[in-house]
Amino acid sequence: MRLICYSLPGRAPPLIVPAPLERSWMDRSPQGFAYRCLPLNIANSHGWLILNSAPFVAEWDGRAEIDAVAVRAIGEPAELLASSHFGSGILTFRVNALFRTDPGFDLVVTGPINQPKDAIQPLTGLVETDWTAATFTMNWKFTRKRTPVAFERDEPFCMIFPIQRGLIETVQPVIRPLAAEPELESAYTLFAESRRAFNQDLAVPGSEAQREQWQKDYVRGRGAAAGAPPDHRTKLTLLEFKHHD
Asked: Would the pTM of this model clear 0.90, i.e. be above it?
């Protein structure tokens, strides 16, 4: 499928890059243990990041009025993407592009996944980008007043990825006891016993568990009942946006 980013007349196109697997807080985790979580890694790189073009500091004074959020450039004066537009402690970024997806696909617009930022929270929206001719903004909600929040140059402020419209409404949620699926229950029991034994062995000097550091069955696509399907992923490789006239 296609994801087209149309640059706007008189505006520089947004800076868009495939989202990387790495996160600075994960880099700082002891022995990089955060990277052992494959679902976290896949989510990190599940889309494209839109980058901030000019550094600034924003601060909210706690009021609901539009002028309650102050935004100032860092360093040389520059045209900022961010401003106070809606009030209620919301910081708004212009995206300066019109996105188009294939029919039946929306665009998830959110903050960089698994990249927390102190005193401010990204808001998430779903846009029907297969038909609308309107642009969208990326919005962040301050969670603490009188706390300066900086966005550096090339810092991501938005993450986008397509999602099939209506798929969630076809889901039929069901709760049933695990005992209703004997094969799955058996596989889970083996997993739980294996995990308990592995965690106990982690405290034993020179044990196999200490050498392995963590169980890698999920990463390797191994399970007690059945292995992972052929499309089991350990990383994502997204294409770059290419410039066309």
From this structure: yes
